[in-house]
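Dear Dr. H.,

I hope your travels went smoothly. While you were away I took the liberty of generating a structure for the chain from your last submission, since the lab meeting agenda had it listed for discussion. I wanted you to have the full record in hand beforehand rather than looking at slides cold. The sequence, exactly as received, is reproduced here:
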Amino acid sequence: MKENVDLIRRWRTSAKIYFQIQNPKSEKFSFRLGQAATSSDEFGEIEGLVPTVYSTAMRIVALANQKGGVGKTTTAVNLGSALAELGHRILLIDLDPQANATSSFGLQGIEETSLYEPLLGGVSITERIFPTQRDALFIVPAHLDLAGAEVEIARMPNHLTRLAETLKPLQADETFDFVLLDCPPSLGILMSNALAAADELLTPIQCEYFALEGLVKIVRLVEQVRDSGANGRLEIGGIVMTMFDSRTRLSAQVVAEVREHFGERVYETVIPRSIRLSEAPSFGKSILEYDPNGVGANAYRALGREFLKRHAPPATPPE
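The corresponding predicted structure, in token form, is as follows:
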């Protein structure tokens, strides 16, 4: 974990030589990520990341559920890692002041790195993007100061679209294939901003009865965002069943009931309950690094493949 923090600190305090993420869709370089060491060898594992598969345009996916403890951050971290492993360039934005996604990569304790200033218009989001130990996976870390941002954003006239405005440089540049927004477990300003900025919502649902009530509320919130005019393109892109326990009937019953109501929106891949998934964040690693051959890692790899299949461009009909 300390190695991950040191990596970020070296980026921020070393000589003024900058790494840039090369944009595969353009001849130009996209933007600088941060300061690098004078020798590129130290960051060789980050330099020159060229994905093997590209989507047609950057897509913003909000991972949200106002109920806590459903595996939302676990899914954001490990789905992002799986997509990066599959060759896509991923940006994970930690919008939760608790900064659990940030600590999952061992990056907690780094100050002045959150989305606080970009949301308020102080700096560009490009100044808050940092590498993780996983190639092609980058993060905008969170900090407790995001809790204060909720209060300040609420006073602004465009309070629902602040995040959408903040993300515009990334949309124009299209350096990343997917941007994953890890939302706080509440129906506050930050989650509303995420839904107003996202192309789709991905909702993790724990395989327990009360999780169904939370799903109904999040569906209503999506409808409100659309009806308000803040984001008419928002759709429910998928529902992921998490913490599935094959030893209990309840898990199977909850999955069956959710599938009955939401049909194909529910992913076929089900994430099992796993001690390894719970342990991985304490080591500052995703499950793909912590237990690469375990059931949790295999489940998130399968989820990544299914996610990409759902987002594959439509086949061109033969002439």
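Two observations you may find useful: Residues 56-310 form a domain with the Rossmann fold fold (CATH 3.40.50.300). Residues 7-55 have pLDDT under 50 and may be disordered.

With kind regards,
E. W.
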